[in-house]
Amino acid sequence: MFQTIIVGLDGSDHAEHALKLACDLADKYGSTLHLIHTPQPQTVAFAMGAVAGYHAATTMPSETEVQDASEKILNAGKAIAAEHGHADVQTHSTRGDPAEEIIACADKNGADLIVTGRRGLGSLGSLLQGSTSQKVNHLAKCACLSVV
C-alpha cells in the first residue's frame, strides 16, 4: 500500500514518535523511508543544546552551525530507524518553508505517505502562521499522517 514514506523531522519528541510509527508502517508494507529536515532557527538552537529560544533569540546561527544541527537531527533519525530495522534510509536537508520542502520531497520521490509530528519545535510560530503538519495535510498530493 505504501511504497515510499516521507518523515518530517525537527528534533522534537513528536517527530520521533512519527518516525517510529513510520518504521512500523514500513515494516508492514515493505516501504522505503525518506527522512527530511528543514533547519529553522529554533531547531538549530535545540540541536545545539541551547535553552529553548535563547540562542536563536540572541544570535543567528552560522552556516556551519546550521549544517551541524541538521546532520545531528538526521543522524538521530537514522539511528532510530536503524533500531527499528531500517538501516537503509534516505536523508534530505533542505532550506525553506518546512511544509513546502516536505511536500516537494514527497513529489520528487513519488511518496505514497507523509508522516509528521503534530506538534514540533515550532509551536509558538504555528500560532501566527499555522503548523507545518496542517499545511502538509492541506497541500500534499498523497496520504498524510499527523502523529501526536
CATH C-level name = Alpha Beta
Q: What number of domains?
A: 1
Overall form? globular
Portion in beta strands: 15-25%
Number of helices: 7
Structural class: alpha/beta
Q: What do we call the CATH homologous superfamily?
A: HUPs
Largest sheet: 5 strands, parallel
Tell me which CATH architecture applies here. Answer: 3-Layer(aba) Sandwich
**Mean pLDDT level:** 86
- The radius of gyration computed from the alpha-carbon positions, rounded to a whole number of angstroms, is 14 Å
What can you see in these coordinates?
The structure is a single chain. The protein has one domain: 3-Layer(aba) Sandwich (Rossmann fold). The model is unreliable at 123-129 (pLDDT under 50). Helices cover 51% and strands 18% of the residues. The chain has helices spanning 13-29, 41-47, 54-58, 63-83, 98-108, 123-129, 132-139, and strands spanning 4-9, 32-37, 90-93, 113-117, 143-147. Helix 5 (98-108) runs parallel beside helix 7. With 148 residues, the chain is α/β, with parallel strands linked by helices.
Features:
five-stranded parallel beta sheet; 148 residues; alpha/beta; Rossmann fold
Per-chain topology:
Elements: E1 4-9, H1 13-29, E2 32-37, H2 41-47, H3 54-58, H4 63-83, E3 90-93, H5 98-108, E4 113-117, H6 123-129, H7 132-139, E5 143-147
Parallel strand pairs: 1-2, 1-4, 2-3, 4-5
Helix pairs in contact: 2-4, 5-7
